[in-house]
C-alpha cells in the first residue's frame, strides 16, 4: 500500500515536472540554406584492437592457425588421445610450407587405430559457433612421415563430445601440400552455441606436421577469406561513406618493425608471416590490404588509406631524408597497389591477387596521431611524404595527423575521446562562435586549436564519448549525438568523422579499450545505444544545413537541421540529454509539408541503460509518425532521447 502511494507520488512529481517544462520554440527557415553538408561526413575507423578482425569481423574460426607457441606450448591447440591412442604434440621450428611460415605443429602418434584416434584440437576464439544446416569451408597444409591414412577433420561439441560435421583429408605425403575440406552440419536439431571445437585426428601411428589450418562459415557476399555476415550487416546500416584503415596505433606498431607492413599482408595466406599488434596480440594478417579494400567495395565505402609515416608508439622514429626514403617509396607502392592499372608493377600484383580493377582513392593519411612524436620530426617527415605523393598523384587529398608548418595538408585529422558532459560543451566546438577556448587542454595532453575556417578541412578521425564498458550506455549515446549535431552544423569545414573503436569481442580478455561501438562473441553481436545514434545520424542526412533558431533551450538540448535538395526532405535531429521530457514548438517556415512526419526515437529511462550480449535489444530506435499542421508541429521529446523527424516537402 505504502509502496503504491510512493509510486503514485513519484508519478505525479514526474508529470508535474514534465508539464512544468516550458516549451522551447524552434524555427526553421526552409528557404535559407546555410552551408553544404559533406557527403563523406560519416564513415568507419578501424584497426586490429579488441579482436576486431581476428575473433571478430574476419570470419576465420581457427585461433592461432599458424601454430605460434610460447613457454606453455602451442597456444589454443590441445592434444587429443581418444580410447587407447597415445601421441604427443610440439612446435616444430625446422619445417613449414613457405618462407613466411617456416614453423609447424608436429604430432607424433605412437598408438592409434580407426576407433582410438589421436590428434589435436583448436578451441577457436572463445569457442566456435556452429549452426545447423551450414557449410563450413576449410583447408590445411600437411605432410607426414609415412602413410597415416586419412586425416579426419571434425567440428565437435564440447558438451557431448559428438562430431557435428566430419570430413576426411586423404593423400597426405612427405611433401608440404594444401588440402581443402568441407564440413556440413545437419539441418536440425542443434542449437547454436559457441561450445564447440575443431578436431584433427588420425587412426595410424606416424608423424604428422600441420600448418595454416583454416575454417570459415558462410561469409558476407560469399567472399572466400571473408567477413562475418552479422557484423557486416550492422556496419552497412550505419551507411558509412568511407573506411579509415589500418589504424590507429595498429598502423604504427609499438616498434618500427611491428608496423603494418602492407606488403606482408597481401597474396596467399601462406605467404603472410603474421605480426604482433600494439594491442598485445598476434595478428593473423588475414585482414590484409586487399581485404580492407574489398570491405570498402562490399559496403560501398571509399577507402581512406593511412600510410606508415616513420613513427612508432614506443617513441622510435625514422629520420627525415635518406633514411625515410624507403618508407616513402613503400607508401607510393601501396597507393599504386590500390589505384594502379594492371600494367603497373603493384597494380599487376593486385590483379594477381584476384582484383584486376583498380580502386578509387581520394584520401591518403600520413601517419597517425603524430603529435605523440616528441622528437619534432613530423613536420619534415610529413613534407617528404607530401612532396613525393603529390608529384606522382596530384589529385589525391592528403591528411596530416598533427599540425604542420612547412606544408599545406588538405585535411587535418583530430581525435576526441571525452565524457558526455564534455561533448555537451564541445557540441559547439566547431561553431563560428567556438565553445572551446583555444589552448584549453585536450584528452591527449594536446590543446584545442582555434578553428580556422580558411585552413585545412577537418577530419575527426577518432572520437567517442567514453562511458560504459564494453560498449557505451545511453548517457554516452547522448554525448555522441550532441557532438554530431555540431559536426553536421559545421560540415562546411568538418569533411569527415568516424567513431572509434568500432568493434569489441566481449569475452574476458577480448577488450583492450573501454567503450566500443559494437560488441560480439563468436555466436552473436549487438549494437550499443551509441551504435544506434550512429545509425540514425548516418541514415538521415541532407546535403545542406538550413537557417534555424531555438529559443528557450537549456544546456541539455541539441539539434541539427539538414535538408536534401534531391529528395526534398528536411531532417531534424533532436537530442534531449535532460531527465525530463521537453515540449517543442517546431515551425518550418517557407515549406509546404506533407501532413505527417516520420519520427524515429531512441530513448531510455536512465543514462546507465544499455544493451549487452545477453540483452541486445533493450534500447533500439522506434519508428512512428507525427501530425504536421501546416508548417507547425507540437512535439514532446522524451527524457534522455535522440530523435529524428523527417519532413516531406511537397
Ligand atoms: O582508438 C583507439 C586508439 O586511440 C587508436 O589506436 C589511437 O589512434 C588512439 O590513441
Overview of the molecule:
- The chain is α/β, with parallel strands linked by helices and 650 residues long.
- Among the domains are: 42-59 and 228-500, TIM Barrel (Alpha-Beta Barrel), CATH 3.20.20.80; 69-216, Jelly Rolls, CATH 2.60.120.260.
- Helix content is 18%, strand content 32%.
- The chain has a nine-stranded mixed β-sheet with strand order 32-31-34-29-28-27-1-30-33, with helices on one face. Strands 2-15-18-19-20-21-22-23 form an eight-stranded parallel barrel, surrounded by six helices. The chain has a five-stranded antiparallel β-sheet with strand order 5-8-13-10-11, with no helix packed on it.
- Strand 10 (151-157) and strand 11 form a beta hairpin.
- The longest helix has 19 residues, at 2-20.
- The chain starts with a helix and ends with a strand.
Q: What is the fold's blueprint, element by element?
A:
Elements: H1 2-20, E1 24-36, E2 42-45, E3 69-70, E4 73-74, E5 77-81, E6 86-92, E7 104-111, E8 118-122, E9 135-144, E10 151-157, E11 163-169, E12 177-184, E13 196-202, E14 206-216, H2 229-236, E15 242-245, H3 249-252, E16 275-276, E17 282-283, H4 289-299, E18 302-307, H5 325-339, H6 345-352, E19 363-366, H7 378-392, E20 397-400, E21 411-418, H8 420-426, E22 457-465, H9 474-489, E23 494-499, E24 503-505, E25 518-520, E26 525-527, H10 529-539, E27 544-551, E28 557-564, E29 569-576, E30 582-589, E31 596-603, E32 622-627, E33 632-637, E34 641-648
Parallel strand pairs: 1-30, 2-15, 2-23, 15-18, 18-19, 19-20, 20-21, 21-22, 22-23, 24-25
Antiparallel strand pairs: 1-27, 3-4, 5-8, 6-7, 7-14, 8-13, 9-12, 9-14, 10-11, 10-13, 16-17, 25-26, 27-28, 28-29, 29-34, 30-33, 31-32, 31-34
Helix pairs in contact: 5-6, 5-7, 8-9, 9-10
Alpha-L-arabinofuranose binds next to loops.
Amino acid at each position: 500500500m505504502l509502496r503504491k502511494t510512493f509510486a503514485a507520488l513519484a508519478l505525479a512529481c514526474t508529470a508535474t515536472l514534465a508539464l512544468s517544462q516550458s516549451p522551447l520554440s524552434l524555427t526553421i527557415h526552409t528557404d535559407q540554406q546555410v552551408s553544404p553538408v559533406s557527403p563523406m561526413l560519416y564513415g568507419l575507423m578501424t584497426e586490429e584492437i579488441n579482436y576486431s578482425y581476428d575473433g571478430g569481423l574476419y570470419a576465420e574460426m581457427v585461433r592461432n592457425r599458424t601454430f605460434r607457441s610460447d613457454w606453455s606450448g602451442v597456444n589454443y591447440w590441445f592434444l587429443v588421445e581418444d580410447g587407447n591412442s597415445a601421441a604427443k604434440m610440439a612446435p616444430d621450428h625446422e619445417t613449414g610450407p613457405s618462407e613466411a611460415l617456416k614453423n609447424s605443429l608436429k604430432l607424433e602418434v605412437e598408438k592409434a587405430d580407426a576407433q582410438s584416434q589421436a590428434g589435436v584440437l583448436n578451441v577457436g576464439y572463445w569457442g566456435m559457433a556452429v549452426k545447423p544446416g551450414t557449410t563450413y569451408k576449410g583447408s590445411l597444409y600437411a605432410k607426414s612421415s609415412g602413410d597415416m591414412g586419412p586425416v579426419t577433420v571434425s567440428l565437435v561439441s564440447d558438451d557431448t563430445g559428438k562430431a557435428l560435421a566430419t570430413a576426411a583429408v586423404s593423400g597426405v605425403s612427405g611433401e608440404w601440400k594444401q588440402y581443402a575440406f568441407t564440413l556440413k552440419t545437419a539441418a536440425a536439431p542443434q542449437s547454436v552455441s559457441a561450445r564447440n571445437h575443431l578436431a584433427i585426428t588420425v587412426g595410424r601411428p606416424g608423424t604428422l606436421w600441420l600448418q595454416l589450418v583454416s575454417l570459415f562459415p558462410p561469409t558476407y557476399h560469399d567472399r572466400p577469406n571473408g567477413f562475418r555476415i552479422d557484423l557486416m550487416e550492422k556496419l552497412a546500416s550505419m551507411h558509412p561513406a568511407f573506411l579509415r584503415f589500418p589504424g590507429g596505433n595498429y598502423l604504427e606498431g609499438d616498434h618500427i618493425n611491428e608496423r603494418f607492413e602492407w606488403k606482408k599482408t597481401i597474396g596467399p595466406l601462406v605467404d603472410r608471416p603474421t605480426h604482433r599488434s600494439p594491442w598485445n596480440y598476434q595478428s593473423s594478417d588475414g585482414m590484409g590490404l586487399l581485404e580492407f579494400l574489398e570491405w570498402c567495395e562490399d559496403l560501398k565505402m571509399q577507402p581512406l588509406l593511412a600510410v606508415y609515416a616513420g613513427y612508432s608508439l614506443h617513441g622510435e622514429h625514422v629520420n627525415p631524408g635518406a633514411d625515410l626514403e624507403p618508407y616513402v617509396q613503400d607508401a607510393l607502392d601501396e597507393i599504386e597497389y590500390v589505384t594502379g592499372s594492371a600494367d603497373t608493377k603493384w597494380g599487376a600484383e593486385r590483379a594477381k591477387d584476384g582484383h584486376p580493377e583498380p580502386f578509387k582513392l581520394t584520401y591518403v593519411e600520413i601517419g597517425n596521431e603524430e603529435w605523440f612524436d616528441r622528437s619534432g620530426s613530423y613536420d619534415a617527415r610529413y613534407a617528404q611524404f607530401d612532396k613525393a605523393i603529390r608529384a606522382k598523384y596530384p589529385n589525391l587529398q592528403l591528411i596530416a595527423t598533427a599540425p604542420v608548418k612547412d606544408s599545406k595538408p588538405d585535411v587535418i585529422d583530430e581525435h576526441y575521446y571525452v565524457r558526455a558532459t564534455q561533448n555537451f560543451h564541445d557540441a559547439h566546438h566547431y561553431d563560428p562562435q567556438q565553445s572551446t577556448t583555444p589552448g584549453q587542454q585536450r584528452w591527449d595532453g594536446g590543446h584545442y586549436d582555434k578553428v580556422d575556417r580558411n585552413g585545412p578541412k577537418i577530419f575527426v578521425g577518432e572520437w567517442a564519448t567514453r562511458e560504459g564498458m564494453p560498449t557505451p550506455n545511453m548517457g554516452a549515446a547522448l554525448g555522441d549525438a550532441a557532438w554530431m549535431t555540431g559536426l553536421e552544423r559545421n560540415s562546411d569545414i568538418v569533411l569527415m568523422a568516424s567513431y572509434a573503436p568500432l568493434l569489441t569481442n566481449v569475452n574476458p580478455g577480448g577488450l583492450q579499450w573501454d567503450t566500443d561501438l559494437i560488441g560480439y562473441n563468436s555466436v552473436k553481436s549487438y549494437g550499443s545505444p551509441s551504435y544506434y545514434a550512429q545509425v540514425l545520424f548516418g541514415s538521415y542526412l541532407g546535403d545542406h544545413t538550413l537557417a534555424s533558431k531555438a529559443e528557450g533551450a537549456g544546456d541539455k538540448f541539441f539539434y541539427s537541421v539538414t535538408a536534401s535538395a534531391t529528395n526534398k526532405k528536411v531532417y531534424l535531429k533532436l537530442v534531449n540529454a535532460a531527465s525530463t521530457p521537453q515540449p517543442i514548438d517546431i515551425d518550418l517556415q517557407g515549406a509546404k509539408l506533407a501532413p505527417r512526419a516520420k519520427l524515429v526515437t531512441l530513448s531510455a529511462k536512465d543514462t546507465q541503460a544499455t544493451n549487452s550480449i545477453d540483452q541486445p535489444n533493450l534500447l533500439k530506435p522506434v519508428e512512428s509518425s507525427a501530425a504536421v499542421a501546416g508548417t507547425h508541429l507540437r512535439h514532446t521529446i522524451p527524457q534522455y532521447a535522440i530523435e529524428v523527424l523527417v519532413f516531406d516537402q511537397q
